Amino acid sequence: MISIENLTVRFGGVVALDHIGAEFSANVSGLIGPNGAGKTTTMNVISGFLDAHNGHVIVEGTDLVKLAPHKRVQWGLRRSFQKEQIANDLTVRENLMAITDHLRGARVEKRADLERAAEFAGVTGILGKMGRDLNTFERRLTDVARCVIGHPKMIMFDEPAGGLTPEETERLGDLILGIHDLTGAKVLVIDHDVELIERICAETLVLDFGKRVAFGPTSEVLRDPAVQAAYLGIDVEEEHA
Amino acid sequence: MRSTTNTIWAVLGLALILVLPAFAGGQWVKIFTSTTTFALAAAGAGFLYTRLGMVSLVQVGLMGVGGWVTLRLNHAFNFPFEINLMVAGAVTMFLGNLIALPALRMRGLYLALITLMFAAGLDIVFTAKQFPNGAEGFWGVGTTFAADMRRPVVAQSDAAYLRYTMVWLVIGFVLIELHRRMAPGRAWALIRKSEAAALASGVNVTLYKTWAFGLSGLLAGLGGGLLAGSLGLLDSATFRASESVMLFALVIVGGARFWYGAVIAAVLFRVVPGLLNNWGVDADLSLVIFGAALLHAVMTAPDGLAGQINGAIRTLIPSRKSDNKGAKA
Predict the structure, then answer these.
(1) In chain A, which residues have their Cβ closer than 8 Å to the Cβ of B196?
(2) In this model, does residue B3 exceed pLDDT 50?
(3) Buried b / exposed e along A51-67 (16+ C-beta atoms within 10 A)
(4) A GO molecular function for this record (chain B) (predicted)?
(5) How many CB atoms lie within 10 A of CB B3?
(6) Of chain A residues 109-148, which have a CB less than 8 A from chain B?
(7) B9, B14, B40, B70, B162 from B226: Cα distances, Å
(8) What's the number of CA atoms in the CB half-sphere (13 Å) around residue B91?
(9) Is pLDDT at B238 greater than 80 in this prediction?
(10) Where are the domains of chain B?
(11) Rounded to whole angstroms, how far apart are CA atoms B259 and B247?
(12) pTM beyond 0.90, yes or no
């Protein structure tokens, strides 16, 4: 259970997130909304890159907001970025080790864990390849491996399907669906690709202008007139009238 | 490929350590010794630049601090040279950590400016207080004094001392390489990619940035201490802020991605002016040469001269496919 309570973020006078609340109980949940809705802000607050003015993010009894960013990773938080962050001058293996380096545990265990994560994401064959030589999809897969390594409890993907072909997106979707069985972690996915969200996310939170528009089972949420209004931009005049 | 090149370099390095001190005569032994000490500092600046993308313009200033501490301890106590050197390294490591504090908030040009200001501050202190030469008092500067600088037991002669300094340089390179291959190196690579990526991987960015500056400071301090041991007396003119800027520029010319880039940088820094002097040309001409070399590096050789040498070696020795990228240490 990922429980977001009353989450508020302000940049000066701009309210980027306005008292957001949601309780994700599904294994894979979605977070959607138009540009500037506050999706990435939400993710950055949960990661600890931004300070929340108010609110809590409680996962398995731990309030993440209170932890330093790198402590959140030790606790079991993983995330990917819109633009993947694979270090070019490290091999894929080293990129994965960069995460296990900062986790507790014996060396042998960490190695086995790394192999398992690589196997899962399908990057075992390219473990020795340098980051700079990877193509877009290989980078994404490495990102997935980075996320499932070291017994994560919560994983966030920020637009994982960006720049991928439909076939690659489908394979990525399958991978994300398999994460819970492998690690037991709860997954939160941000994407513009509504098809992907519909396929893999059981529950979805919709944001617009920093406010919660809808939350619930994905298929219901996507049928919600308010959500369609936010996405398609209809009814704007009526709302203002 | 990787191990072959590394073996070639190791053999070359060993040969140089054995041969160079034996054949270099008179003034050149001293010049090579100081070249080696500056290579230590250059290695520190270079690794900070390539591994973390941070510019430190205070390396030569920190060398001055290392030299000051070594001289101070030498004249105040009867410790062996190594102890003095270690303390000097520890002091500059700590100073490096201090400089890292603004580095936690600033990036790029702004950070470079902060380090430059630090160098300017040291410059002023060195000019005002000079370096201890055995006189009384904390600053230990007297007009007629010139107390003995004790050298390590194993390296009393100039030639032996050059060899001794070269061994320290090798230790410095090994230290950097070990860091690169282990957890700090990976953390630094992530920090260079982006701090967000590092944080999201559980890297304690504060710790690892401080650590990097500390290591870079340590190398500069060791270099300064070794230089003090070579000359016995130090002059504030050696450690001007402008020298730090020059050394950094030459690190770029030499090629910061490669360890021998630091050696090239130091050779340009110390040997070229010496050569010009030998030929009866004004040594300031070297500034013109360095300027042109820097332009060349920035425009056509992003990995510096070392990068070009590495490229040449790779065309000469047919590589076994993609593995040669690993040789870019």
Answers:
(1) 47, 49, 81, 85
(2) yes
(3) ebeebebebeebebbeb
(4) branched-chain amino acid transmembrane transporter activity
(5) 10
(6) 130, 133, 146
(7) 24, 20, 10, 8, 10
(8) 23
(9) yes
(10) 29-235
(11) 15
(12) no
Q: What percent of chain A has pLDDT over 90?
A: 65
The predicted pLDDT at position A193 comes to 83
* Cα separation values, B198 from A82, A202, B68, Å: 15, 31, 37
- Asked whether residue A235 carries a pLDDT value surpassing 60, the answer given is no
Question: Do B256 and B49 form a contact (C-beta atoms < 8 A)?
Answer: yes
Q: Give the ipTM of the model, two decimals please.
A: 0.86
Residue A159, classed as helix, strand or coil, is coil
Angstrom distances, CA of residue B241 to CA of B57, B60, B63, B244, B274: 8, 7, 11, 5, 21
- Sheet bearing A77-79, strands edge to edge: A77-79, A154-158, A186-190, A28-32, A203-208, A211-217
Which chain A residues contact residue B325 at CB under 8 A? 130
Place of tokens 């010496």: B274
Best B104, B201, B205, B321 residue to mutate vs chain A (most A CBs within 10 Å): B201
Q: Express as a percent the part of chain A with pLDDT over 70.
A: 96
Residue A201 has pLDDT above 90, yes or no: yes
Q: Which residue has the tokens 């992530």?
A: B190
Q: Which two tokens stand for residue B329?
A: 């240490």
Q: In angstroms, rounded to a whole number, what is the distance separating the alpha carbons of residues A144 and A138?
A: 10
Q: d(Cα B242, Cα B224) in Å, to the nearest integer?
A: 16
Residue at B68: amino acid letter = W
Residues in B closer than 8 angstroms to A90, CB to CB, are 186, 189
Among A86, A87, A102, select the one facing B202 at the smallest CB separation. Answer: A102
pLDDT one-digit tens code per residue, B118-146: 999 999 999 998 898 877 778 878 777 67
Query: What percent of chain B is predicted at pLDDT more than 90?
Result: 44
Taking the C-alpha atoms of residue B79 and residue B152, their distance in angstroms, rounded to an integer, is 10
Give B-chain residues touching A95 at CB under 8 angstroms: 186
Q: Of A150, A43, A145, which Cα lies nearest the Cα of A86?
A: A145
Which two structure tokens, joined as six digits, stand for A47? Answer: 């990661």
State residue B319's pLDDT score: 55
Cβ distance B186 to A101 less than 8 Å, yes or no, reads: yes
Dig out the tokens for A108 from the structure: 């042998």
Residue B288 has pLDDT above 70, yes or no: yes
CATH class of A2-240: alpha beta
* Span A63-116, pLDDT tens digits: 999 999 989 999 999 999 988 789 998 999 999 999 999 888 888 999 999 999
Nearest CA in chain B to A149: B201
Calculate how close chain B gets to A33, using CA atoms only, in Å: 23
Question: Residue B197: its chain A contacts at CB < 8 A?
Answer: 81, 85, 87
pLDDT at B179: 93
